[in-house]
Specification:
40% helix; 307 residues; globular; 2 domains; hydrolase activity; single chain; alpha/beta; Metallo-beta-lactamase, Chain A
Length: 307
């Protein structure tokens, strides 16, 4: 299914309907926004084929940021796209040209076996194929402008992409996480993501307001898919950022800081999910959000220690 020439692709990372990439087609030319992992490449090429296009028709791969669930497969995908260039944030470009530090950091956290299982091989991209997308950079897809805007807060190497044609943003992780299992009659449910190691609450709130300033019709999230309840979701995200920061400060200095923060974040999200009318039982919501709760707690702790 396409929407303004845009296809949402399930990359298959972690579980179904968790990690999205996007294919934009304009006048027979194509661009991917984010790409998942090396294991996702067949799904991306299959989506391209479903539109009657070949790898030679792809002009761009645009990365919202270089976290591996968004960009781990970039090198492998670029090897299959002979005419494509990579557009990436200035802070992310060096890690795509030489991913050794990115791989080392992830391996230190997850271990070699888990990196191979979850992400596959993380391959370098020749420097001459990399375009540094500074704030305000416009990617031209067959005359369709895709505006790249610097959006720190989740990561300092994060950008979002504005597509005027569809009046929508490709938000990466700036506009939080919104899993379809948590939708209700009130619309989409979302939580912020403070994944380590560069969470900055004030910057994230400014970035969300920057996205809202264009009065978008939709946000296209990596986790997961397009959402249209933009104003209500933005209000929920902004208030939750403040609540999460308060919980982190309350736990700081305690010997059980991490456990306390994991527990309090879980309580926050479960209460908000119940108020939103989510149909899942509390234990199902907790299970669905377990990894995000853990990562959010870790990111908040890194922020506390840096502040």
């Amino acid at each position: 299914m396409t929407d303004h020439g845009i296809t949402t692709i399930d990359t298959g990372f972690h579980r179904p309907v968790f990690d999205a990439a996007y294919l934009i087609v304009e006048q027979g030319r194509a661009a991917f926004v984010d790409c998942g992992t090396q294991h996702s490449v067949p799904s991306l090429l299959a989506a391209l084929d479903a539109q009657g296009l070949a790898p030679e028709h792809v002009d761009w791969l645009i990365l919202t940021h270089v976290h591996l669930d968004h960009a781990g497969g970039a090198g492998a995908l670029m090897r299959r796209l002979p005419n494509a260039r990579l557009a990436v944030h200035p802070r992310g470009a060096p890690h795509m040209i030489d991913p050794s530090r990115l791989v080392a950091g992830a391996t230190a956290v997850y271990g070699e076996e888990e990196i191979a299982r979850s992400y596959g091989e993380i391959l370098p991209i020749p420097e001459e194929r990399v375009v540094v997308a500074r704030d305000g950079h416009v990617v031209d897809l067959a005359g369709r402008p895709l505006l790249c805007i610097d959006t720190p807060g989740h990561a300092r190497h994060h950008l979002c992409v504005w597509d005027e044609h569809s009046r929508s943003w490709f938000t990466g992780d700036t506009f939080g996480l919104s899993y379809r299992e948590l939708d209700s009659a009130r619309g989409a449910f979302a939580i912020p993501t403070t994944t380590p190691v560069q969470f900055e609450p004030d910057a994230l709130k400014r970035s969300i307001r920057t996205l809202l300033a264009r009065d978008p019709l939709a946000m296209r999230l990596t986790h997961y898919g397009p959402v249209t309840d933009v104003a209500a979701m933005a209000d929920a995200l902004l208030s939750q950022i403040d609540a999460m920061v308060a919980l982190a400060r309350a736990a700081d200095g305690r010997p059980d800081r991490h456990a306390r923060l994991v527990a309090s974040l879980g309580e926050l999200y479960l209460a908000r999910a119940a108020a939103h009318g989510c149909a899942l039982a509390p234990e199902q919501v907790r299970e669905l959000l377990a990894m995000d709760i853990e990562l959010n707690a870790q990111g908040l702790e890194v922020w506390l220690d840096r502040a």
